[in-house]
Amino acid sequence: MGLGMGLNLLLLLAMVSTNILSLYHLSSSIQAGKPTTPPPVPDHLLHQLTTIRATINHLRSTATPTPATATATTTAPSDLLLYSHISPIGSACHRHPDLLHRYMNYTPYSLCPSDLPLAESLLLRGCHPLPRRRCFSPSPSSSQLGPNDLKALSSSSNNFFSFTSELDLTIPQLLQIAKSSSSLLRLALDIGAGSGTFAAQVKPYNVTVLSTTMNLGFPFNEAAAMRGVVPLHIPLQQRLPILDGVVDLVRCGHAVNRWIPVVELEFLLYDVDRVLRGGGYLWLDRFFSKGVDLEKTYAPLIGKLGYKRVKWATATKTDSNGFNKNGEVYLTALLQKPAALVRPPKS
């Protein structure tokens, strides 16, 4: 029984006892037929009332604060507080009323405003607003991509078939690794997929790839769609819209790197673990960070998954002039999720 219920019960008991005493005195007066001095209250009743009053006073002094006070003194679990700030849920919208007001300021029953950058600003801040339900989506008559853009996309397609360093993992190598372990690749997810190059190149091998991508100044989603790739317009912190344990391969492209806060990266990795089936693969394709951070932070973070290392290659990251800034390194890792349902935690 809770403390509040116990206190209410004691108050009720005190009220009943008081009423009993009043009836006792009243009945004594009526029986006498004249107002006389009531007989003394029995000692055992006085003792009970004294005990009840003392208990009530003690409970009042130690009672739990009211809900209004409790909100100021009670601390929620740290993980819950953190998740409420970075998770892409609707409640995050209230922290950005200016952006949300601009997004929802449109003329009903007309064309919707063409302001994708504004929508992506909300998405990146964890606010997924409801769609504009009373305006018509504009249908552009021509593609936003020019001839040069399409040529650039075509020239980048050879990246997954050439092997120039240990950081490379070609599509034929990937398929051979899966075949050697009797693991089929049928359904894959490409996180931070850009224009969907990986999905387009692996499609002839009967592998269906869903690609998460944002535009961020370039029509990556449109480019992926033109190549016959399914683009998922979601940010990195979005919970993957996929059922548990159904994906054979998850690839994390260049968008997944040290710029992501460590806690968000951890959430991402565990969501990847959620959608991967037992025996499936996680491919970190050229994840870059400082060398010291890879050793002290990211390698242990990845190791907590308990995956088998099929490939783990590192190399110095250099810019276009051949210089290494801030001691950064690349990591290419292919990791296989254990088939067992329960895995011991990694220290």
TrEMBL record:
Gene3D superfamilies: Vaccinia Virus protein VP39. One of its GO terms (molecular function) is methyltransferase activity. This is S-adenosyl-L-methionine-dependent methyltransferase. Keywords: Methyltransferase, Signal, Signal-anchor, Transferase, Transmembrane. Belongs to the methyltransferase superfamily. Residues 1-22 form the signal peptide. PANTHER family: EXPRESSED PROTEIN, S-ADENOSYL-L-METHIONINE-DEPENDENT METHYLTRANSFERASE SUPERFAMILY PROTEIN-RELATED. Pfam families: Methyltransf_29.
